[in-house]
């Protein structure tokens, strides 16, 4: 659903990732001007909107779903987005965010905050609970396009975004792969 | 009635966090805290993996400064192999580290912070972003994009990829630099120098308009820490740790980074996934110190390149001792870009830069290795222990942003107290609370390597701790 002047609404969000996919998005460099000409960026780490808006045409999601907050966010994003794309290997397969799955979550916390710290009790309040498993997006919601890569190249992202904003789901098999 | 304001998520920062501001019964700020809400578990899941995998795995801590992790991790691996790497391996690592600092500083200044600086702290939040500045200040914004692209392209030229190159490896780098590529980079340098000098002039010319922010943005005494070379100059790749105090005097000097645990202790916080390191001899919280561009300007005796040293001399005039306002992280960041461009030129003009001997090979020879370097945001430590087969037993990482946790928290409180009075909480005040965080340029995907994430959220709580208001701006 576009705005009255026909401009599309684009959003990006990061869940449990390293922000490298967002950096690759910025690596479009001057082509960012072209994207800005096609669509309003209505939500994302680069803009000051605090609540995920309604009626978004395309959302790119970086990172796996690792905490209760991530889970809540991806459900909200899905319910307010027409086309949802998993951006990068963590969103597609959990990848690096999923490496902790081989250990019980309590041990991950124990290692970080007790064995590797000198004092203090460790996080208890004002922080979201970690999910037992870090999972890819499609474990929780319907995904319309997977964009693999660690990260996908700027050219791949530009091509995918341009196609998605024009209402087409592109075939990316010639453009990127896992670990690209 | 007392209440808590929440800013969630904190935007235009690199990671996930929120901020809570507690107001008392009269509507004045009683406390403010910065909470980091992501934890990733790197220290855990590297266990049992071969140490040589660490550089490319640890780089995935952060997509903004993967090169910094590649460098610190590879240096820790060098120590495990107990090798001295070929001189040109070290030179090329220095080069890619400088490229990384240029692109990351350009990202903070132009893509994240310039909306506050160019459009104003109180400007329309809908337009207060890089696309908004692009519309209103296209020339300056495109220059920023060019400058970041230069750094990213240099990384790609050396490492084959802009984000997560695999080129920096235990023992050096995987392949040498070609002459043609060197010449291409050299040819672009003059344009980049002009861009950064023009933006430095712009910043200095506009500082007067931010006097209130300069006074209130984490402007307080603290220690500062950075690596310096044997002559006390800026060194992003190597050197010894130095701590200076607010008066500008060294309180700790010549500390081998491998002995970091002697001077740095880490404390957990009950309400954040980000731990708080402090200077061990002074205890918690008096041992609060800052790292990154501002700290480096305060710690060094000179930068070591001509144009940057001139700018540094002018910067020094801001204060008789250390420069204390964190607003000046922006200023320091621009001077560092200039320094990096000058150092990149020096390295590329060194005939040794084309030497094809760039890597040493060895089996693991030591059980413990520490690697340290200056990342864009401050000093980065990777500390590994391996077993007799070279498999990881333990990793401890102290990430640049983490060092600043105590100062960021105190800075958030200082800004909130200054701008929020009588229970009046407007967008401009909240944006300044976020802007002080942006000045530190925290990289939260990095710093909460262990668990870690950081959007921004302001919660207002009453005197009993009940959440009575949540300022989630939209």
Molecular structure report:
The complex is a heterodimer of chains A (180) and B (474). Chain A has 180 residues and is of the alpha/beta class. Chain A is built from six helices and seven strands, in the order βααβββαβααββα. The longest helix of chain A is centred in the middle third of the chain and has 13 residues, at 68-80. Chain A is globular. Chain B is of the alpha+beta class and 474 residues long. Helix content of chain B is 42%, strand content 19%. In chain B, strands 1, 2, 3, 17 and 18 form a five-stranded mixed β-sheet that branches. Mean pLDDT of chain B is 89; it is low at 447-458. Classes of the chains: A alpha/beta (180), B alpha+beta (474). Chains A and B meet through α1, α2 and α5 of A and β3, β4, α1, α4 and α5 of B.
Can you give keywords for this protein?
heterodimer, A: 180 residues, alpha/beta, 5-stranded parallel beta sheet, two-stranded antiparallel ribbon, 31% helix, globular, B: 474 residues, alpha+beta, 5-stranded mixed beta sheet, 4-stranded mixed beta sheet, 16 helices
Radius of gyration of chain B: 22 Å
- Contiguous helical run count of chain A: 6
Distance from first to last alpha carbon of chain B: 25 Å
Oligomer: heterodimer
Outline type of chain B = globular
**Biggest sheet character of chain A:** 5 strands, parallel
Structural class of chain A: alpha/beta
Strand arrangement across the biggest beta sheet of chain A: 2-1-3-5-7
Give the beta-strand count of chain B. Answer: 18
- Secondary-structure-derived class of chain B: alpha+beta
Could you give a quick summary of the protein structure above?
Chain A is an alpha/beta fold. Chain A contains six helices and seven strands; from the N terminus they run E-H-H-E-E-E-H-E-H-H-E-E-H.
């Amino acid at each position: 659903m576009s705005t009255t002047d026909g401009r599309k609404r684009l959003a990006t969000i990061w869940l449990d990732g390293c922000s490298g996919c967002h950096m690759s998005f910025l690596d479009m460099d001057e082509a960012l001007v072209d994207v800005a000409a096609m669509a309003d960026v209505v939500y994302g780490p680069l803009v000051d909107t605090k609540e995920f808006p309604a009626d978004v045409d395309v959302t790119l999601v970086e990172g796996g779903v690792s905490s209760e907050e991530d889970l809540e966010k991806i459900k909200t994003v899905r319910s307010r987005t027409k086309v949802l794309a998993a951006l990068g290997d963590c969103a597609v397969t959990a990848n690096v965010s999923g490496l902790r799955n081989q250990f019980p979550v309590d041990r991950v916390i124990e290692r970080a905050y007790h064995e590797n710290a000198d004092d203090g009790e460790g996080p208890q309040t004002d922080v979201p609970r970690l999910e037992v498993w870090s999972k890819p997006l499609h474990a929780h919601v319907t995904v319309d396009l997977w964009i693999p890569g660690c990260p996908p190249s700027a050219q791949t992202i530009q091509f995918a975004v341009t196609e998605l904003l024009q209402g087409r789901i592109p075939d990316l098999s010639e453009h990127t792969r896992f670990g690209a | 009635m007392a209440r808590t304001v929440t800013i969630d998520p904190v935007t235009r920062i690199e990671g996930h966090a929120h901020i809570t501001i507690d107001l008392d019964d009269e509507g004045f700020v009683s406390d403010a805290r910065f909470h980091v809400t992501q934890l990733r578990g790197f220290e855990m899941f590297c266990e049992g993996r071969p140490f040589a995998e660490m550089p490319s795995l640890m780089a995935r801590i952060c997509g903004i400064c993967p090169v910094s992790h590649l460098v610190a991790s590879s240096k820790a691996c060098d120590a495990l192999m107990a090798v001295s790497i070929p001189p040109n391996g070290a030179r090329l690592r220095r080069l890619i580290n400088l490229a990384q600092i240029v692109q990351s500083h350009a990202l903070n200044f132009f893509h994240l912070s310039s909306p506050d600086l160019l459009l104003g702290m109180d400007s329309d939040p809908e337009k207060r972003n890089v696309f908004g500045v692009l519309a209103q200040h296209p020339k300056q914004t495109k220059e920023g994009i060019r400058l970041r692209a230069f750094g990213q392209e240099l990384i790609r030229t050396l490492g084959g990829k802009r984000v997560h190159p695999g080129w920096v490896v235990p023992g050096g780098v995987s392949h040498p630099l070609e002459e043609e590529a060197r010449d291409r980079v050299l040819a672009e340098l003059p344009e980049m120098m002009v861009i950064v000098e023009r933006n430095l002039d712009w910043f200095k010319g506009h500082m007067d308009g931010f006097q209130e922010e300069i006074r209130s943005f984490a402007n307080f005494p603290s220690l500062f820490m950075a690596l310096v070379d044997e002559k006390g100059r800026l060194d992003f790749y190597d050197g010894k740790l130095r701590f200076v105090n607010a008066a500008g005097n060294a309180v700790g000097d010549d500390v081998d980074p491998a002995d970091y645990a002697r001077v740095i202790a880490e404390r957990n916080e009950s309400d954040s996934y980000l731990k708080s390191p402090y200077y061990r001899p002074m205890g918690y919280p008096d041992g609060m110190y800052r790292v990154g561009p501002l700290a480096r300007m305060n710690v060094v005796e000179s930068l070591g390149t001509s144009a940057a040293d001139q700018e540094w001399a002018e910067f020094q005039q801001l204060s008789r001792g250390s420069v204390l306002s964190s607003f000046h992280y922006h200023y320091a960041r621009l001077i560092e870009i200039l320094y990096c461009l000058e150092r990149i030129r020096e390295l590329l003009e060194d005939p040794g830069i084309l030497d094809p001997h760039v890597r040493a090979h060895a089996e693991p020879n030591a059980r413990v290795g520490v690697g340290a370097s200056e990342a864009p945001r401050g000093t980065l430590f990777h500390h590994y222990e391996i077993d007799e087969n070279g498999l990881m037993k333990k990793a401890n990482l102290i990430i640049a942003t983490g060092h600043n946790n105590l100062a960021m928290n105190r800075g958030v409180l200082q800004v909130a107290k200054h701008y929020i009075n009588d229970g009046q909480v407007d967008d401009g005040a909240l944006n300044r609370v976020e802007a002080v965080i942006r000045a530190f340029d925290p990289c939260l995907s990095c710093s909460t390597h262990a668990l870690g994430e950081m959007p921004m959220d302001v919660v207002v709580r009453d005197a009993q701790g009940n959440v009575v208001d949540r300022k989630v701006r939209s």
